[in-house]
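Appendix C reproduces, verbatim, an entry submitted by the partner laboratory led by Prof. M.T., so that reviewers can inspect both the input and the predicted structure.
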Amino acid sequence: MISEMEYVEGQIDQGAINLPSHMIGSVKRYVLRGIGGGSFLTALFSNDLIGAIGKADAENQEAIGAWAQFLYNSIPGNCHGSPEKVAAWIASGGIAGSRVES
């Protein structure tokens, strides 16, 4: 049986095919472990389109449509959408942390 971590990682790999390859490690660390990324990813996950475009390198600016598709289709909805969701996701430790029993 496949674990949730493996499933989500597979979804990321599948969905990220049109994203700049140098971003995939940061995306996985954020989604799977709740480790914050750089200013571009933080703005993107926070639903700050203008901030994300302003902080993006040329490859990420060109791929902004692919990023929108990726956010909608490939990662959990509760890890993006507002600065509060991003802060809560980081505080929870991502997929790994949200599955730890207290």
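Residues 34-96 form one domain. Additional entries are available on request from the coordinating office.
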